Amino acid sequence: MIGQRGIPASFGGVERHVEELGTELAARGHEVTVFTRTNYTTERPHEYRGMRARYLPTVTRKHLDAIVHSAISTVAATGDHFDVIHYHAVGPGIPAFIPRYFSRTKVVLTVHGLDADRAKWGGWARSVLTAATWLSARVPDATIVVSRSLAEHYALRYGRKAWYIPNGVVNPTRRPADEITRRFGLHGGDYFLFVGRLVPEKAPDLLIRAFLRLPGNLRLLVAGGSSFTDEYVRSLRSLAATDPRVLFPGYVYGPTLDELYSNAAAFVLPSSLEGLPLTLLEAASYGIPVVASDIPPHLEVVGSDEPGRRLFATGDDLGLLRALIRVLTDPEGERAGAEALRRRVLETYSWGATAEATERVYIEVLGRA
After folding, report:
1. Beta-bridge mates of residue 108
2. Which of 40, 62, 69, 117 could, after both became Cys, cross-link 58 (CB 3.0–4.6 A)?
3. What CA–CA distance (Å, rounded) separates 16 from 5?
4. d(CA 30, CA 18)
5. What is the CATH number for 164?
6. Mapping DSSP to helix (H, G, I), strand (E, B) and coil, where does residue 181 land?
7. Residue 4 lies inside a defined structural domain of this protein
8. 286: phi > 0 → left, psi -120 to 50 → alpha, else beta; which?
9. CA 142 to CA 21: how far, in whole Å?
10. Same structural domain for residues 357 and 340?
């Protein structure tokens, strides 16, 4: 596996995807090596959840962090004669031509989103990622996408049949409010929750603007941090500076995140661009109401606007405000709808199914029965 920051996954949807997928593949008998950036985590286990971790350096700069590590990892992996090199995300997939055309190793690439459309990139980087997206449809032996809308995009734009293999989710541990009460003064049902990288396409600024218009004592917890977007994060803090109800705890994971998901009045994801967001699947798996923008990947998960799954027009802060108010108007009805969504999500999305489908891709590109 190449392209992710590494394991153990402390933040990032791609990192969580690789950790869960790799764990399942290892349990099925595969030898899985995950190439990890040395600047990602202070934990350096040689093996983790059945996977081997290999640590290689990179350049900690916005435009070079991913591609430099991917290039170094590609050279190392090509020399190790793996059966399959599996890239994650289009940018880190640029060096995939090396094993594809200069070795017998098969190449698979998973597209987690249209990275060229992310707002943090300037003109030059956007052009490189646009070319990388074109390469992702041409170079790999197989291209995987995590949402149906991405599959349609590759078919219409590039004439490439991509394998649709969505993210999975686990049946979570629902926890009563304990640590979040001590740390943040939250007791359950008294806050809205956002979880994710603080980047423009996830639109936490839209959520903050809508929330500031909401009267009352409810709080908003914005759990996440910068992804080479320090200036944007500063703008978010400045936007919320006059309202002590808005909290910025940074990245949160583990039991604390379990508590936050378990006890939120609603999870809110106002993104303008996603692949198939793990945070939305995770929030739904806890049985809490979700509020989401009406982009295709969100509709794929939640379906239509109903109790427990409220939708609003992308970019519409007043529409978002109305959705938040609807969640608060009938808490029992919203919880019942959220529980129905929880059951559907747990039935539809599983890491075991993701691993089984991925294994079929490997078998096909290797030409094995």
Report:
1. 86, 142
2. 69
3. 10
4. 14
5. 3.40.50.2000
6. helix
7. no
8. alpha
9. 17
10. no
- Distance (Å, whole) CA 253 – CA 10: 7
Judgement on whether residues 358 and 301 belong to the same structural domain of the protein: no
Angle among Cα 42, 48, 51 to the nearest 5 degrees reads 125
Tokens in use for 60? 């900690």
Are 108 and 361 contacting, i.e. CB atoms less than 8 angstroms apart?
A: yes
303 falls within a domain? yes
Residue in the block written with tokens 């936050």: 260
Do 241 and 227 sit in the same domain of this protein?
yes
Residues 71 and 161 occupy one common structural domain? yes
Give the residue numbers spanning the domain of 54.
13-168+350-366
How many residues does this entry show for the chain?
369
H or E element at residue 77: helix 65-79
pLDDT per residue as tens digits for the range 80-112: 999 999 999 999 999 999 999 999 999 999 999
Least confident span in 112-126, 206-220, 244-258: 112-126
> DSSP letters of 190-253?
SEEEEES---GGG-HHHHHHHHHT--SS-EEEEE---SS-HHHHHHHHHHTTT-TTEEEEES--
Q: Which helix (H) or strand (E) holds 37?
A: strand 33-37
Q: Report the phi/psi class of residue 72: left, alpha or beta, with left for phi > 0 and alpha for psi in -120 to 50.
A: alpha
Same domain, 199 and 320: yes
State whether 112 and 145 are in the same domain. yes
Query: Which of 233, 231, 223, 338 lies closest to 292, judged by CA?
Result: 338
Q: What is the pTM of this model?
A: 0.91
